[in-house]
TrEMBL record:
It comes from the Eukaryota. One of its GO terms (cellular component) is peroxisome. The lineage of its organism: Eukaryota, Metazoa, Ecdysozoa, Arthropoda, Hexapoda. Residues 24-123 form the Peroxisomal multifunctional enzyme type 2-like N-terminal domain. This is Peroxisomal multifunctional enzyme type 2-like N-terminal domain-containing protein. The keyword Iron does not apply. The chain crosses the membrane at residues 59-78. InterPro entries: MFE-2_N (IPR054357). Keywords: Membrane, Transmembrane, Transmembrane helix. It comes from Allacma fusca. GO terms for biological process: fatty acid beta-oxidation. It holds the Pfam family MFE-2_hydrat-2_N. GO terms for molecular function: (3S)-3-hydroxyacyl-CoA dehydrogenase (NAD+) activity; 17-beta-hydroxysteroid dehydrogenase (NAD+) activity; enoyl-CoA hydratase activity.
Length: 128
């Protein structure tokens, strides 16, 4: 549903159905992420995240947030909201992982706006 500025209401935004986004990653993506957050082969536990042939290789748990990133960015482009990305402030995030991420996978996710709060200088969107 395309929203025009006069149709942007809390009810309309929270009832929007966003498309399911598909993405895939490999162990290479997970290794680059681990390097980016500071793991090193000099660290005692670094090889577990940096060397795919390590007997205990695993994907760093917070990498799952990166995989969902495109869906969150697409939320900012919701027609009618006129969200200026330079004015967006990321307040907090909650992440729950039920099992370890595999070294490579195809994933699908869908963003859902669950609430819109009125603030003095704008709006706060809560989504999952």
């Amino acid at each position: 549903m395309a929203l025009t500025p006069e149709r942007v209401t809390k009810r309309n935004v929270t009832s929007c159905k966003f498309p399911i986004e598909s993405n895939e990653y490999t162990f290479r993506d997970a290794i680059i992420y681990a390097l980016g957050i500071g793991f090193s082969t000099k660290d005692e536990c670094g090889l577990r995240y940096l060397y795919e042939n390590s007997k205990d290789f695993q994907v760093f748990p917070l990498f799952g947030i990166m995989v969902a990133g495109p869906s969150v960015i697409n939320l900012l482009a919701l027609p009618g909201l006129k969200i200026k990305q330079e004015r967006v402030l990321h307040l907090e995030q909650y992440f729950e992982q039920h099992r370890p991420l595999p070294p490579q996978a195809k994933v699908s996710n869908q963003v859902e706006v669950v609430d819109v709060l009125d603030r003095k200088t704008g709006s706060q969107y809560i989504f999952r």
